[in-house]
From TrEMBL:
<dbReference type="GO" id="GO:0006979">
    <property type="term" value="P:response to oxidative stress"/>
</dbReference>
<dbReference type="GO" id="GO:0051920">
    <property type="term" value="F:peroxiredoxin activity"/>
</dbReference>
<keyword id="KW-0049">Antioxidant</keyword>
<feature type="disulfide bond">
    <location>
        <begin position="130"/>
        <end position="133"/>
    </location>
</feature>
<keyword id="KW-0560">Oxidoreductase</keyword>
<dbReference type="Pfam" id="PF02627">
    <property type="entry name" value="CMD"/>
</dbReference>
<comment type="function">
    <text>Antioxidant protein with alkyl hydroperoxidase activity. Required for the reduction of the AhpC active site cysteine residues and for the regeneration of the AhpC enzyme activity.</text>
</comment>
<keyword id="KW-0676">Redox-active center</keyword>
<comment type="subunit">
    <text>Homotrimer.</text>
</comment>
<comment type="similarity">
    <text>Belongs to the AhpD family.</text>
</comment>
<feature type="domain" description="Carboxymuconolactone decarboxylase-like">
    <location>
        <begin position="94"/>
        <end position="173"/>
    </location>
</feature>
<dbReference type="InterPro" id="IPR004675">
    <property type="entry name" value="AhpD_core"/>
</dbReference>
<feature type="active site" description="Cysteine sulfenic acid (-SOH) intermediate">
    <location>
        <position position="133"/>
    </location>
</feature>
<keyword id="KW-1015">Disulfide bond</keyword>
<dbReference type="InterPro" id="IPR029032">
    <property type="entry name" value="AhpD-like"/>
</dbReference>
<dbReference type="GO" id="GO:0032843">
    <property type="term" value="F:hydroperoxide reductase activity"/>
</dbReference>
<dbReference type="InterPro" id="IPR003779">
    <property type="entry name" value="CMD-like"/>
</dbReference>
Length: 177
């Protein structure tokens, strides 16, 4: 089991992350597609090859090909959008009405339920630190019928995977010293 590989790779000082990772992988707040799509999208957003490899292997056993691609698509498109929307915010009111001018077709046709894709986009936006995108995706998923508990579960997955990635990268760097 790939989550097990990640748990085993964590150093003792990251025991809380190990416990969180185990409990989140057994979440009952999200259905299987939502859960593993969130794990996969968030893993891609961490930019850790180790985390992405381990999570992607397990996610591939659970997700359809369409859901797998949509989760990675959410990570990719949010990688672009989070930068662009944060920049608009940094630049101020003078840029508020500037047309984005970037292709985002996957958002309109992700290949999965809109609420699932938006939930994955929310998780990635959280990791990427985009306030506006996180809030916008929360608004969409809540209108689509997801509860605040489901949204928070996705945030917890994103937060935990980011912490796991940080601990693993630190361990890898220290081992190379």
């Amino acid at each position: 089991m790939s989550v097990e590989n990640l748990k085993n790779a964590l150093p003792e000082y990251a025991k809380d992350l190990k416990l969180n990772l185990g409990s989140l992988a057994r979440s009952t707040e999200l259905n299987e597609q939502q859960l593993w799509g969130t794990f996969l999208a968030a893993a891609a957003a961490t930019k850790s090859a180790t985390v992405l490899k381990e999570i992607s292997e397990e996610a591939a056993d659970v997700l359809s090909a369409e859901a797998y691609n949509a989760a990675l698509g959410a990570a990719s498109i949010m990688g672009m959008n989070n930068v662009a929307y944060r920049a608009k915010g940094f630049l101020g009111d003078d840029y508020a009405q500037v047309r984005m001018g970037l292709r985002m077709n996957i958002i309109g046709n992700p290949g999965v339920e809109k609420s699932d894709f938006e939930l994955w986009s929310l998780a990635v936006s959280t990791i990427n630190g985009c306030h506006d995108c996180t809030a916008a995706h929360d608004n969409v998923v809540r209108k689509e019928g997801l509860s605040k508990e489901q949204v928070w579960e996705a945030v917890k997955i994103a937060a935990t995977l980011q912490g796991v990635a940080q601990a693993i990268v630190a361990s890898e760097l220290l081992a190379g010293v």
